[in-house]
Amino acid sequence: MRLWGAPTLEPDEWTAYIPSGERQVEDPWLLTTSTFTAPEPMEWERMSHPEPELLWSSTGNVTVEAAGHVWLVPPALGIWLPAGMPHRVKASADTVTYATFLNPDLTHMSWHTVTGIPLSRLLREVLLHNQREPMPDEVRLRLQQVGVDLIKPVQAASLDIPLPKTPELRAVADRIIADPADDRTTEEWARELGLSGRTLMRWFQRDTGVSLTQWRILVRVRSALIDIAAGKPVVAVSRRLGYANPSTFIDLFRQVTGHTPAAYFRSMSGGEDMAPLAELPRARVS
Question: Per-residue b/e over 143-158, b at no fewer than 16 CB within 10 Å?
Fold first, then answer.
């Protein structure tokens, strides 16, 4: 019998679909964290859980598709998934990802949508300590309460990418996500689909709320965050994304997130207070 909320003797790794009716946390525990690894690129089936879930990672590239958006899971940020939220997870090779489930009967969060959660060093260590270390039940419950108290939403999420619903546009979106440096214009994409540029712009705006150009910038920033979180230099990242001048990329990054890349990761890791992140500008981005 598993002791919910306490560490197991072996690393708690799972890669299989967990049925939506199966509880992960039982009273009196407040939370438990599972670990799953992806030695090769993996994509899990669409799933949902009866408890809210905080999905976070320590290495590798992880994305979550939920509520019609794609969410990046860099090491500095977790993704909050409300109970019952269908989602699909993709992970690159050599990824270590954690799923922290919370007891909905004993914890009460005030947000009920997919939300970014800053993963401070303290929160990370509390969750890992609870997962790995033996301790008396009363001590574990106090530790878990600290973990619950540390889970706070970021002021405004900027890492979610709205996905178009129209199949033709979704095909374009998938190709841009696969190659963010693709610099084809709206007119060129429209010709491939047999549409006018004006029609493609109107459809993309209708499906996602932003223009194709603005959406592609979001994808590039998302891709950059993955590389920067892995320790790659900003200059190399900007060149990979097609920006000959790194300052151009940094300016766009600041417009999307409200921070330079260095300041963004400091704020996410708890090094400074998080200022409200900027909405994607519609007039300034071209």
Answer: bbeebbebbebbeebb
Query: Are 87 and 46 contacting, i.e. CB atoms less than 8 angstroms apart?
Result: yes
Q: Write the pLDDT tens digit of every residue in 28-64.
A: 999 999 998 888 888 888 889 999 999 998 877 788 8
Contact present, 190 and 93 (Cβ < 8 Å): no
Dihedrals φ, ψ of 69, to 5°?
A: -130, 160
Residue type, 63: T
CA dihedral angle for residue 66, residue 71, residue 72, residue 73, rounded to 10 degrees: -50
For the chain, state the CA radius of gyration: 20
CA terminus-to-terminus distance, the chain: 58
Q: How many CB atoms lie within 10 A of CB 125?
A: 11
Q: Give the count of alpha carbons within 13 A of 237, CB side only.
A: 21
Q: Residue 4: count other Cβ atoms within 10 Å of its Cβ.
A: 17
85 closest CA partner among 54, 44, 48, 46 = 48
Q: Do residues 232 and 251 touch, judged by C-beta distance below 8 A?
A: no
- For residue 246, give the nearest of 259, 255, 236 by alpha carbon: 236
Task: Give per-residue pLDDT as tens, 79-115.
Answer: 899 998 999 998 888 888 999 999 999 998 877 888 8
Task: Give one DSSP letter per residue of 163-230, joined into a string.
Answer: PP-SHHHHHHHHHHHH-TT----HHHHHHHHT--HHHHHHHHHHHHSS-HHHHHHHHHHHHHHHHHHT
